[in-house]
Amino acid sequence: MLDKIGLTHVSSVRIPIATKLILSFLLIIAIISVVFSVAGSQIIGNRVVAEAQERVRTDLNAAREIYLNKLGNVSNVVRYTANRILLKDALSSGDMEQATEELIKVAQREGLDVLTVTDRSGKVLLRTSNPGLLDDNEGQDELVRAVMERKDTVASTWIVPADELRKESPLLAEKAYFKFIKTPKARARVETEETAGMMLKAAAPILDDQNNLIGVIYGGVLLNRDFEIVDKIKQTVFQDVKYSGKDIGTATIFQDDVRISTNVKNEDGSRAIGTRVAEDVYNQVVTAGQPWIGRAYVVNDWYITAYEPIRNFNNKIIGILYVGVLEQRYVDIRTQTILVFLTIALAGVLVSIALSYFVSRRISGAIQELVSASQEIARGNLEARAVVKSRDELRDLADTFNAMALALKDRDEKLKEFTTKKIMESERLALIGQLAANVAHEINNPLQGIVTYSHLLLERMPGDSPSRASVQKIVTQADRCRTIIRGLLDFSRQRALHKSPSEVNAVLNECVSLVEDQALFHNIQIIKDLRPNLPFIVLDPAQIQQVFMNLIINAAEAMDGSGRLTLATRLDPAGKFIEVEFVDTGHGISQENLDKIFDPFFTTKEIRHGVGLGLAISYGIVKEHQGMLSVESVIGKGTTFIVRLPVMAEERA
Ligand SMILES: Nc1ncnc2c1ncn2[C@@H]1O[C@H](COP(=O)(O)OP(=O)(O)OP(=O)(O)O)[C@@H](O)[C@H]1O
Ligand SMILES: [Mg+2]
To answer: What is the pTM of this model?
Structure first.
């Protein structure tokens, strides 16, 4: 496509600088803010989660301490009781009545669900939880047997089967019983209920004075539906803090995979006992025996959790201890962080849009200003100026532009002034020329009479007439007047050209033959160096001959009648002109006069010899032939005139 000033545009879609700037700003900001937000929130989010996990790991340690502390309590109570004289005496005497009374008080006071005494073979002698059931044998109980063998206290978390529980107390069996409750993600299991119970159980030897085993005492606390430990953990470790109505921290004791003691809540707010652990957690903690630290789905919500196995006396995994904090809180922190990041990024985008809009408006405004100023100038209004206020390269450009406009205007004015002057001058010259031509024409006829009659008068005058000298002067001056008037008439006459195809060499040869015999040329050697077979060119032979004659005579006069005149013709290298050269060995032309020789009436010759019209007329004739007349000269050495006549395409044909 071509626009008004002729520039070509390659691309067809025109995108303004402002748009380009805004778009690139936006792109940069968008990339930065996306990267910044994503990376930032990722880092902070991960940090927050890592922090939470670290915390939950420590919380699990605290929870374990609380749990073991409770087991230690049970163990202590059992051991102290084993050492009581009252009990030893009762065993030696076989009267258990008083001891039973006392131990029931101990069990109540210390919160033991079970406190049972056997003889050294394991036969039950005293059962605080079920005083009516005696004489059965507990010797097969692993803890009791261990005590018998080691004569030392043992304590452990212990799974107590349902019938054992029922022996201790039917109430306990009932307390331990769970029907499984379904929750999402819970581990699949064929069974639907749990009848055994999990107990913190300790057993101690009862020794006589000789350190002989006289019996075994064991006691325990059933963990099923006993929330003392988990609530103590929640209270001590998590300070009961709540987050949107829910406890932040939770703790659970699992019997195998069943929540038997927990403060994790169901939807209805009740404790989620009877629910079961998530499958993946179970596999890692119970099956593989590894602690679990991380996210886990607990009952009905996501928690950041820590689980570790609970082992029994034989190091068998029988349950899980769990602590966890609500993930929601950390998710919210992360969401808030992302929001803050996004807000900052959005603000950045807005600021950069505003900024780039402002900047680009300034730039494109300045450019627009320059464009309209240029258009004004192109329309010819040289007064147009670009006003750019910003202090930058655009201002420099505008200043330069304005300077250019000023210079243009200046030059334009000078040119106008010059042309006006020139026109006036040439009008004046034309007027004078016209006047001179008219005068010459009017004078020509009377002058002709004067010349004729003065010649006649001189002829008829006797040789000794005293007036002869005066008449002679009249004749000479009248002749001179006639020459001037003829020259003037020649110069001013706008004769129509009578053009015909001619041979330049022929015209030149004829000129030479005309002058050769004249006295002026007797001592002048004429050398001709004419290129043969030059193309014919269309010219007026009479007028061109006049030009050549003028130049030849000028040369002869410059050489004062002796010297060498070389005439040469040739085709210029481009084949567009025939060049005719006149080289003389005359006195040359001074630099000063070179500028004037083509002016009419400029002559350096004496009054009688020259009028100063020869070159002026020749110049006019050559011009009319679309040719050129040029001169080179060296004072004292000679002058070269060159006439260049065009070989037109049609004429060449
Ligand atoms: N070949 C030349 N060598 C040196 N001077 C020259 C030569 N041709 C012209 N001139 C100078 O140029 C002047 C002008 O020449 P031009 O032919 O116009 O006038 P003119 O010869 O003086 O008079 P006329 O009108 O009789 O020709 C001459 O007076 C002379 O000074
Ligand atoms: Mg002359």
So the answer is: 0.56
